[in-house]
Amino acid sequence: MFYRENGQFKTSYRADQQILPIAQDRWAMLVLLVAAFALVPAVASDYMFRAILIPFLIFSLAAVGVNILVGYCGQISLGSGAFMAVGAYAAYNFHVRVDGMPLLLALVLGGVCAMLFGMLFGLPSLRVKGLYLAVATLAAQFFADWMFLRVQWFTNNSSSGSVSVSNLQVFGYSLEGPGAKYFFCLGLLALVALLAKNLVRGAVGREWMAIRDMDVAAAVIGIRPMYAKLSAFAVSSFIVGIAGALWAFIYLGAWEPAAFSVDQSFRLLFMVIIGGMGSIMGSFFGAAFIVVLPIALSQFLRFFATVSGLEISTAVASHAELMVFGGLIVWFLIVEPHGLAKLWSVGKQKLRLWPFPH
Amino acid sequence: MAFFLETLLGGLMAGMLYALVALGFVLIFKASGVFNFAQGAMVLFAALAMARFSEWIPAGLGIMDPLLGNVLAFVGAGLVMFAVAWTIERLVLRHLVNQEGATLLMATIGITYFMEGLGQTLFGSSIYKIDIDMPKDPVMILERVFEGGILINKEDFYAALIAGVLVALLSLFFQKTATGRALRAVADDHQAAQSIGIPLNRIWVIVWCVAGVVALVAGMIWGSKLGVQFSLTTVALRALPVVILGGITSVPGAIVGGLIIGVGEKLSEVYLGPFVGGGIEIWFAYVLALGFLLVRPQGLFGEKIIDRV
Fold first, then answer.
1. B241 is in which domain, residue-wise?
2. Which of A38, A315, A326, A342 has the most CB atoms around its CB within 10 Å?
3. Nearest CA to CA, how far is A29 from chain B (Å)?
4. Residue A177 is part of which domain span?
């Protein structure tokens, strides 16, 4: 009843082409932004910031990046953890080795390094496709794991292999409190998501989608596969690299190479597939799902233990978590293989007619 | 020269074991088009089952003979793997027919998590031993040809032998039996196979069972070498480059790929490792596979990929 576009006439191309063509959507987005920037920081507790909100924002950013590569360009990548690692370590090196390097510039430079690394390991995509490519991108993952563990230079010759950053500042503001970190991540995420949304609906995005749908046909109608694929790798690994740097700088503070293991790559791919391939909004859904699920599970197990009076050891609890996590993912893939974004669009269609049946 | 040969032989034997794990991937991919990432978890699961059964069964039934105990444990673990295969087909694969490759891959990663959790819940998560009485003492061969001879680990040798026999048996099974023919038919074309009356669901259960048994043998051998523990799942990640190197659809490819990767890993670690700080085995295998892929995108023995618009 309320979600109708009746009477909203578009009289210019601009109006027709905008990101949110329906007025109600624009209002909803405005409300969401106000909530994210004003309401949430006012009510969220320290724990909420640290355990849920900040990881959610950073993983959303990474998932947007991975979605560009996997969802829009159709190149399955299991190397996202490596791109995150390169972003994080490159930003770290710029941060500690160059005096007075501003944090933002270090992050962007980290992203650029991740981009170069991603393009290098994206080169096989010109020759190799599908699952072969997925395994080939694992090469990037293991290579990065090894590189940051064994090559001392990258970790500033720290003896334990673990590195840390402290006293982060942006434009003179300190990034120590959880609220400040939240705003910083949120601002970056909003910016990158807007850029990504505009990229995927522009000429480049259409090329990516053409390549995804059928690369031979796309090449026949004059899309350069090399340009399209490598640009997807570049943009994707740039965003993922920045997300990796944020994850290390803002969330972890001190980290070692294991923070960006192959599990991280799987997690990112899960987010994209559960959220919905080829949907920027889906990346947010997927990130929320994967970030919140383990926390909810462990809370539930603790609750279950107290209610039933059973003594559940930590080992059993962590195994049970693994099982439920795996089971839920399989169940989810069976029920909705096109992801949460699909559910969302189905819901929107239903809302259009509501409360009438037709 | 003797040292080089020693490394080479060691690589070949390790390669045989990789081939064994890779075989599990290939079997399932051929028959159902699923890239089964859970193969590593299956290896762990089977090895855990085998290790625990070999404790429980002799203790429960009062069997003294270690050989009989091991055989019973093997059979028990085989039955468990059958149940696993049947459950996976029933609960997962059947509902995911006709989905994209990426979705299926993710589903098997979900299965991986589930089986890792379940296996450790059922069988415990410490380090267990599988003692199948393999001789552990190294022997020297070719002492007359080279000074000092070549040192060979007997255990590795027997492991490679078992792997080789299993591969031969599987090839016979695929080539000579009616079921094997049905499997190959399904691998060629699902629809055509179904239209001539081959029951797809049953074939999938059989394939997953065979992959389960392969995982069991692999788990048994790796487990008796390294002890049964969680890190066994990483064997799957070591075997992935083998699969793409040999070609995802080819049984001989898995074996040749395994040998190449095994030798490549060992030689690179010994001759290249010292210059770059060591520990390069894992990514070297991937880079090696990548190098082959750039020349032959379908792997060494894979079916030629033909693109049509």
1. 2-295
2. A326
3. 30
4. 33-261
